[in-house]
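From: lab user (bench 3)
To: helpdesk
Subject: output format question, protein + nicotinamide-adenine-dinucleotide

Hello, I'm new to running complex predictions and I'm not sure whether the block I got back is the full result or only part of it. Here's what I submitted:
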Amino acid sequence: MKKSIKETIMGMGSNLDRRDFLKGALAVGAGLALHQAIAKAEEPIGVAKPGNVAGLTAPPVNVVRAGFVGVGGRGTGDMIEFLKCDGVEVNAVCDIVPAKVDCAAGIVEKKQHRKPVGYSSGPEDFKRLCQRDDIDSVFICTPWEWHVPMAVYAMQCGKHAFMEVSAAMNIADCWQLVETAEKTRKHCMMLENCCYGESELMVLNMVRQGVFGDLTHGEAGYIHDLRDLKLSGQGEGAWRTQWSVDHNGNLYPTHGLGPVAQYMNINRGDRFDYLTSMSSPAMGLHQASIKKFGPNHPMSKIDYKCGDMNTTIIKTAKGRTIMVQHDTTSPRPYSRINLISGTLGTFSGYPDRIALSPNSHEWQEVEEYRKKYRHPLIAKAGEKAKGAGHGGMDFIMMYRLVDCLHRGLPLDMDVYDAAAWSCIVECSEKSVANRGNSVDIPDFTRGAWKTTLPLGIVS
Ligand SMILES: NC(=O)c1ccc[n+]([C@@H]2O[C@H](COP(=O)([O-])OP(=O)(O)OC[C@H]3O[C@@H](n4cnc5c(N)ncnc54)[C@H](O)[C@@H]3O)[C@@H](O)[C@H]2O)c1
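Helpdesk reply: Thanks, we reran it on our side. This is the complete output you should expect:
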């Protein structure tokens, strides 16, 4: 008959104190984990569809020749960081607002002493930009609903597509990105700058060096009080708010989730399997609207669907869990949570702190780890990143992307990452609508996650 853990430990004889008992229990747990790992390894390895683009490379280039589509707040910022890199050109810019094209063209001219060609003849004019033969990369920084049609068209024109977050807002569009990237064999990368934060890169480095042991759980989020922006009608406020009227789920999952997915080697040894998701009531925007405009204003009559706080829990194929939250309407400080937990310790962001075995009952400051585990990218480009957008990570992302294109290296994030991280929007929405019941997350790699090697970002 199978013995309980206590019987097993006690059967080992001797006067075990509580610590020994726990040590023994952990050893049994580790044995179990090993057994499960071996059992999993014996599962048949899925055969990736021919044409899988994990690890895709493009021939090296001396100059990255870019076009930017959507030069509002973010597009202009991305373009400025891109222009700080060596070996780049911006040859075309596009926006439906001619004044924004003029402004962006002026910024480019100052830097490269030559104006890019401007396109602003309506919402489909990006196509003329994509057709140009003096660009090989299209940066897409438009509202969410435009990312996929623009990226697909750019790839069909033989260009790499780099789109802002989230890459896509539904599962069908995620598949469209994957299938187009596989067919055209062009890079399709989501510009997830948060994977290049100094803390996130340090944690990635620590994870790779085994500091936290075997990873078991992560927590991620996008908690950002955007009430003023969402009621402003300006910039993102002109389009983002409508998503809160029409959808209820995690509308913006990738900023927090991207780094945690990289810690866990998602799509490179593990994958998102299924999720369950719930939303709190939708109250914040309505109440903020009444305060700002008065109860009789049309803005205050809007029926918002998106719950103020959405909490999603993802289960991975290896059994790990990831909590992902989204809240852009509650009064609280900004946070992407950035927590990763393993058998030897835990790191948590906001504020950064660490707890490592055996001194894990209290949080410790991370300063002493910053130097030891500084990521090579920060060591190399950190000085130049000072003053750049979002604490420097916007430049680090562009620097790394441009360097990979110059050297013909695979990119740190591929189309499968863009799809897996972004599809949480629709998967969470489906779960919320069905009392939090679980929803399967598609395997966009079609089994290749089992054989794709982890990122070589730490050299
Ligand atoms: N990574 C980050 O930290 C970060 C920060 C902010 C925004 N974003 C993302 O960047 C994207 C843009 O956000 P934003 O804040 O710049 O919004 P924005 O509204 O300021 O800019 C979007 C621009 O796209 C233009 N546009 C709309 N439709 C177009 C079309 N068919 N053709 C050409 N141009 C078109 C608009 O005129 C506008 O100038 C969004 O996906 C957002 O989620 C990312």
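A quick orientation on your result: The two ends are 50 Å apart (CA to CA). Let us know if anything else is unclear.
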